[in-house]
Amino acid sequence: MMKIDISKPIYTNEEAARKHLEKLRWPENISCPFCTKHEKVKPTTMKNKPSAKNPNPKPLKGYYHCGACRVRFTVRTGTIYERSHIPLHKWVLATQLLCSSKKGMSAHQLHRMLGMTYKTAWFMAHRIREAMMNTSPSPIGGKGESVQADETYFGRKDVIKKYTKYGRPTHSGKMSVVALVSNGKSKAFHVESANLQAITEILKNNVRPETELHTDESYLYKRIGKEFAAHKTVRHASGEYKRNGAHTNNVENYFSIFKRGMTGVYQRCSERHLQRYLNEFDFRYSNRDINDFERSDKALRQAEGKRLTYKATKSKSAA
After folding, report:
1. Which of 9, 235, 236, 317 supports an S-S bond with 16, CB 3.0-4.6 Å?
2. 60-66 and 71-73 strand pairing
3. What's the burial of 309, exposed, middle or buried (CB within 10 Å: 0-12/13-18/19+)?
């Protein structure tokens, strides 16, 4: 198995990181992110304004000029790195670390390893999670295939209305997640409440009708299960975990990884950011058949066309 070598130039040198990102974004010809043309794109020089500390600024590399629409751009333009003062080699290293850590890496750990403030590391990690998101999802399953579906509850909602007699949040006071797993790929959704309406909508929009649905004995799946090719269940309450080839072990394994990461690494997540964490775990789970470097490069390629502009100081999330 290949190991991460953080002494590689792309993790320590700005020029090497820039060329690496350019190669991933434009494998053939550098094209303008505004008009998408490449015929009249040429390298150009840029300089910072002279100052007392730097009276003779050096030319800035990595700028290009499009003769078709007459604009300048860099590899940062139109990506999660745009308007960020963080060096590109730190972006590449942070992406590698998040993609290689099975249960994630906290912003506090990134802040210590990369030598930046916690707020910067927190915002940086959320931008990388945004890059991991699949913006063009398609339904899973199909003829002769099966999809496992299950729901789970964890943590605490930002506003808790009901508690048990022991002072713990009821299911309505915990954050709800519905997950689908098929052929080694996962899709997880944060829902306000894992009720019949929410689960029916998720299954209709994300699973093909000719699929065989595998669930536990929950009543939530009985009605919607009739709309698929077959609906097989297992009775966990009776200690049954497999029947006639049907089980939910894979989706429960996904929940196990997710909960250990959220509890042991991130520790606290506000409800408003939960879906982005789910996107992160989905990305790693669905791409675990490729090595860490290929997974990181895939996330870097997906950075185009995604932006986050809110301020990290507004969030109450600790990790």
Report:
1. 9
2. antiparallel
3. exposed
Q: What is the pLDDT of residue 315?
A: 41
Q: Which of 85, 119, 126 is nearest to 105 (CA)?
A: 126
CA distances from 113 to 149, 160, 180, 210 (A): 38, 36, 34, 48
Between CA 89 and CA 91 the distance in angstroms is 5
The DSSP result for 34-77, as a single string, is TT---TTEEEEEE-PPP-SS-SSPPPEEEEEEETTTTEEE-TTT
pTM for the full predicted model: 0.88
Question: Which residues are 191's β-sheet partners?
Answer: 176
φ, ψ at 192 (rounded to 5°): -60, -40
Q: pLDDT of 152-171, one tens digit each?
A: 998 888 777 677 777 776 66
Tokens representing 266 are 């991130």
Q: Is the pLDDT of residue 128 over 90?
A: yes
Strands 212-216 and 230-234: parallel
